[in-house]
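Researcher: Next entry: RNA methyltransferase (Virgisporangium ochraceum).
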Amino acid sequence: MAAPLWPKYDVNLGTLLRTCDAVGACLAVPRRPWIGEALARGNTLRHRSCVHWTSRPIDWLGAQRAGGSAVVGVELADEAVRLGDLPAARKRTVMVLGNESEGIPADALELLDTVVEIPMIGSGHSLNVAVAGSLVLYKLAGLL
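Model: Predicted structure:
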């Protein structure tokens, strides 16, 4: 499951929804007025997609972990696993994404089982959320 729980840009959600469909995953999003339309606009497949809505992202994430899901965050951190070394998911997994500006909030970082980073050679510090999430989803699905 992809969980961009603190989105800033609506275009990222449509791209992630398409990637979720490609790898057989669901998308978890917070309830915000603009998100429903962003998903509808971005769903180029034109069929109903698997979307979970949450009102309180931190509580939802804690419940997923308590329910036995592995929680993987895409973030820059000292203890992060490089994307190439990330194994395919062997059980239900929630991939958490922050946003390009602030990343994953500190109270959510405490709920992560694994942190994965995507190595970069260029001068940027991060990729677009949709691109980063898509790369990690494919790796977790065992398709890369």
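Model: Note for the record: The longest strand covers residues 70-74.
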